[in-house]
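agent> Task received from the user: take the single chain below, predict its 3D structure, and emit structure tokens. No templates, no multimer pairing.
agent> Plan: (1) validate residues, (2) run structure prediction, (3) serialize to tokens, (4) report one or two observations.
agent> Step 1 OK, no nonstandard residues flagged.
tool_call: predict_structure(input=
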Amino acid sequence: MPSTTEASRTWTVGKLADELGVTTRTLRFYEAEGLVTPARAGTSRVYDHRDRARLRLILRGKRFGMSLSEIREIVDMYDGAASSERRQLETLLARLGEITTDLQARQRDLARTLSEVGDVAAQCRQRLDELG
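)
tool_result: status=success, residues=132
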């Protein structure tokens, strides 16, 4: 749980984008999708601790290859009622299992491709040696 000082901290769109390693356009996109709702100070967006936490969850979901609807369900857990937490955690675990299976298959495919590349490179070297 953040301290009172941390909880009251705010970020501008530019500062938060820099901290998270994304563009300001990315943050505005997630706002337009309703995934975050920064406050306004005039025409400026002001992100609070809740927005920052949600954005970190969103970006993690994107890295995991989740769709926006899947991400929405997960980030809503951040604000969700305790009664729905079990279902949300079960949903997240199921999706993480699918992601793990997919990544393992990709890893096997990459290992196979690397092996093939090595074989072809060895054949090329052998042929070059034969050619003198």
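agent> Step 4: summary for the user.
Residues 1-79 form a domain with the Multidrug-efflux Transporter Regulator; Chain: A; Domain 2 fold (CATH 1.10.1660.10).
agent> Done.
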